[in-house]
Amino acid sequence: MLAGSAWLSGPKTLAALMQMHSTAAPANTLNVSTLANFVDPLPIPAVAKPDGMRSLPSSRKTKLPYYRFAAQPVEMKIHRDLKPTRFWSFGPAVPGPTLEMRSGEELLVEWANELPQQHFLPIDYRLHGAEGTPQVRMVSHMHGARVPPDSDGFPEDWFVPGKSVLYHYPNQQDAAMLWYHDHAMGINRLNVYAGLFGAAIVRDKVEDALNLPSGKYEVPLVLFDRMITPEGQLYYPVSGKERAPWVPEVFGDAILVNGKLFPYLEVEPRKYRFRVLNGSNARFYHLALQNGLGLQQIGTDQGLLPAPAAIKKIRLAPGERADVVIDFSDSRGEQIVLKDDAVAVMQFRVSANKVSDSSSLPAQLRPVPRIPESEAVKTRLFTLDEYRSLKGDPVLLLLDGKYWHDPISETPALNSTEIWTFVNPTDDTHPIHLHAVRFQVLDRQHYEPWTYQTKKEFRFLGPRVPPEPYEAGWKDTARADSKMVTRIIVPFNAYPGKYVWHCHILEHEDNEMMRPYEIVAGT
Length: 523
Ligand code: C2O
Ligand code: CU
Ligand code: CU
Known about the structure:
Blueprint lengths: L6 E3 L2 H12 L16 E2 L11 E3 L7 E14 L8 E5 L6 E7 L4 E7 L26 E4 L20 E6 L6 E7 L5 H7 L2 E7 L1 H4 L9 E11 L5 E2 L18 E4 L2 E2 L1 E5 L3 E8 L6 E5 L5 E6 L2 E9 L2 E3 L4 E7 L7 E6 L2 E8 L27 E12 L6 E4 L17 E8 L5 E5 L5 E7 L2 H7 L21 E4 L3 E8 L5 E7 L2 H5 L3 E6 L4
One copper (II) ion binds next to strand 8.
């Protein structure tokens, strides 16, 4: 628990910093708006190929498809007019190869650390898990996967260059876009910023039967923002305090899509399916087509929505995914810019010729039965806290006033359902992610933080707001909005053992906004 009185719980600092970072690039970085737009085609990450068959160490008999993902330094051109940029990746480029999976079909991935002995981004040795040596540590987590705990990439299970681990993915879950990324304790934000992530797609029969756009008409869009130096290299900002370089959030003006800055994609005048992932450390996206063309969101983090939701903007917090269909059939010959608020992100070049389109966008996708609140056997309430120090120490972020190393306090029973309530007095929205499970957003409600802080009583300032239609499916990451109480309902249908839950703003996660939890097998 938080001890001592040298800390003030206050909402101001972070939001102020957020504003500063999101507008201007610091002097030592390149202003990417000076670069030519739409001169590079959108790269499509390669689909990973199995490296043979292997058996699980526990069962000699069954052979499973085996993949090897090795983290290595790479050089990649992010823009025609920039020199190659150094990244770390699980493949020849960032994002790493896309892992294609089928629901119910198990597979094995060997995650190998073939990185150098030294990190190239500024480690903060004060942070829990980042102390001392070795500098370079990694562990891979499959975000959104329902996996046994020993294959989930527990943050403290990191391994050093020259080592590898073999993880087992049972894939007992519905079709969805997942993503793999580093999760090493205390340096996760740096490893992901360096490029250690990629997309993973689970498919199943329900989705197959819908006849959605597929093949070259289904395109992953993996978004991540970076700061770039005038030499074209990654820049990760520091606080200015030599021994405490951690900064509370990082926003770059270079928004990369599949690893390119301002790419273009040539499309036919027909329906396309885009699998959009926010792989940024801290940036929230609000993506819209400049010509006002509408989009249909058909899925969220954990798969298909019950029905398509008409949207004007794709809204994604860090870690979230959106599955959207765009119909270009009325836009023949047009060039349409995709913008994040006012900033150009990429361009679609629609060909002028007429084409036929045999794909469909059904009015009903996949039922998502709402879980009745009465099914919950327990309700837990958490505050999301930011503390300012009276001594000028960096901001401190905690979940429910607890540090990572405090004893485990969340021990849901295997297969039980719980309601988790997040009380957010801060000016920041924190995207909260739980490993191993999927959940539904129940509602959000404005409340008055001061009354709660002083009297532990809720004074609500409005009604309970149900989730937006585009987030009314199965989720694994949800916004806990500023000054609101957000409730989710979670069936803990995973595997018994230790997992984590955390804020998916990676700077927050690395600095104590992450907690272990344990799913406990029935007695
Ligand atoms: Cu995207 Cu703990 O993960
Ligand atoms: Cu995860
Ligand atoms: Cu946060």
